[in-house]
From TrEMBL:
Protein name: SAM-dependent methyltransferase
An annotated Gene Ontology molecular function: S-adenosylmethionine-dependent methyltransferase activity
Keywords: Methyltransferase, S-adenosyl-L-methionine, Transferase
Entry keyword Nuclease: no
UniProt entry tagged with the keyword tRNA-binding: no
InterPro entries: Methyltransf_11, SAM-dependent_MTases_sf
UniProt cross-references to Pfam families, sorted A to Z: Methyltransf_11
Domain Methyltransferase type span(s) in chain numbering: 35-130
SUPFAM superfamilies, per the entry: S-adenosyl-L-methionine-dependent methyltransferases (SSF53335)
Biological process annotations from GO: methylation
UniProt lineage: Bacteria, Bacillati, Actinomycetota, Actinomycetes, Streptosporangiales
Organism expressing this protein natively: Spinactinospora alkalitolerans
Region Disordered: start-end pairs: 157-176
Amino acid sequence: MRGYRDRVPEEYWNHNVHYHPTVLDAVPQGRGAALDVGCGDGLLVRRRAGRARRATGVDRSAAMVPLARERSGHVGNADFVEADVCDAVGGRLPEGGYDFVSAVAVVHHPGFARAVEAMVRLLAPGGRLAVVGLANNRTPLDWVVSGVGVPVARLRARRQGRSGRRAHRRPRHGLG
């Protein structure tokens, strides 16, 4: 992980980060507890910490959770749990304990239905769930449609002063 820490600035852009503003807009201002499933290095948790009393990230990657803790040490209301969200409900993650739960590009790891079921169980009554999912490309048309989005996303990142170059991409990680 040392090389990753050296290459990735605090603010960076990749396909997942592209959806962070949309997810953050869904967070009710001043609400209690928020959970990011598949938190990786904790960037979305850090961004969400200003909108929630407590921001928690969960990831099953033994490498990413320590990195998230290291990068988020200055954020007093952020914490991180190393666990698979599907196995942690009612244990390390309290059932009904979160006002907002999000998952960006991770529900395909354990399977959509299983992941969503677990996340719904984590929601408090009246809570919100935000899921950004990725479909598998199965047909040539799927690949064409996916490919068309790449230059548009890169152009948008450059216009916003962020780089989408390979050196700034986050390594793959598992579902929280």
